[in-house]
Amino acid sequence: MKYSKNREELVETLSKYISNITQDDKKIDEIVNHLENKHNINLGRVMYFLNDPKRLNEAELPEIALLAEQVGLKLEEAEELHLQNWFNINEIKEIRQYYHVDESQKDKIELPITFENVTFLGDGVYAVALDYSIIARMYKWDLLNYNFEIQREGRLKKVGNNVIQEVKIYKKNVKEIKERVLKGIQQKTSLAYNCAVETSEDESEQELIFDEKNHTLTITKGTRIDILDGTHRTIGIYQAYLEQPEIEGKMIVLFSNYSTQQAREYQVELSKATPFNKARAKELAQERHADELVSRLKSEGMLKGRISSTNTINKSLNQLTTSSILSDAFDKHWKPEKRSDISKIIRKFNSYLDFLFEYFEDYIEDKNNLLFTKLFFIGHVILAKRMYDKDIPYEELNKYIEDISFNKNDDIWRKLNIVHDIDRELITDKKTIKGIEDFFKGIKLK
Length: 446
Description:
Elements: H1 7-21, H2 25-39, H3 43-50, H4 61-74, H5 89-96, E1 113-115, E2 119-122, E3 125-131, H6 132-140, E4 144-145, E5 154-159, E6 162-167, H7 171-183, E7 190-195, E8 208-211, E9 216-219, E10 225-229, H8 231-243, E11 250-256, H9 260-264, H10 278-285, H11 289-297, E12 307-308, E13 321-322, H12 323-333, H13 341-360, H14 376-389, H15 397-401, H16 411-415, H17 430-442
Parallel strand pairs: 4-10, 7-11, 12-13
Antiparallel strand pairs: 1-9, 2-3, 3-11, 5-6, 7-10, 8-9
Helix pairs in contact: 1-4, 2-4, 6-8, 7-8, 11-12, 11-13, 12-14, 13-14, 14-17
């Protein structure tokens, strides 16, 4: 400040004019708009000072100067508040660059957020070591959600005439975790957070965007992040952070991108790392919407537990087809054009399967019948899509295929190059797939 000028004198001079300025709502609005837009000093903070000038002693000097300047510009009689009367040219330049940061907002964290040094574990799961402070801030700013549909620890509570759900928290456990975190002796277990399917507001329609080259993972705007495992540890870390914001330490966090059904069944076994064959690698990469669709079919509907992740199926495990066969079929014949299409297609295809199994389930154990062989699920995708397009109810499925003999010994399957001439076993090549496609496309519908 200029020689012989000081903060106290500026506050005293500004205070003289505050009662005059507060009588003019229009001028107050203009002052607030300027300070908020240019310097991030919001309405609440401006009025906090104007309503009681003694509070100006709590303000930062640039705030006092900027408020004084605005009052001086709005009141002709307050010319003595002009900044050149109090500060030199360089100080005024610095004051004009001031941008207020609310102490309570300094640690705010919001989406989108990008994490570095991320490892893709497969099956739509990513691992990253996050600082305790990041985990705590995510919880503080409501980025982490407790989803009662996927948690076991919710409970019902009656409030007045209403019954509500509330989080079941064991305070003793949280306190013990907080103390261990503060002492630096918390075990390095992993937390599991799920970025719920179809919650992103990003134009990509993806909740998670993984950059394989740079090993970064971005959680996109609008994504709902549900705590799958680690509610007590998350809250314990948060409470430790409130006591000691500079807290040091990290914890592994597993981020997944599952539907509600998949989240309920969520289990990740880090200790069982085994090599992947090409079919498994393709499934885990999930480069296409169709891959994600099939990933969800593995845990929803009639094919739950019946889809193999390799190129072969295991009858003893009740497997019927493979991920790669279904993914290719959906990508070619019923392709989800955008991510939001996936749920609708799953609902429709599962409805088709409900009736298929209801009408023809006896054929599953019939070794001579082709209807439930792995490649014929290509045909089921085609037929389900055709019936959907023609608005034919799936309950009428038996009307269209009950008179067709799917016995592998019938000549039609040999002529279509679907079974071998001699042993009548299923052929597995491109010609076979073409034959199955042509056959199901040729089934006459109304």
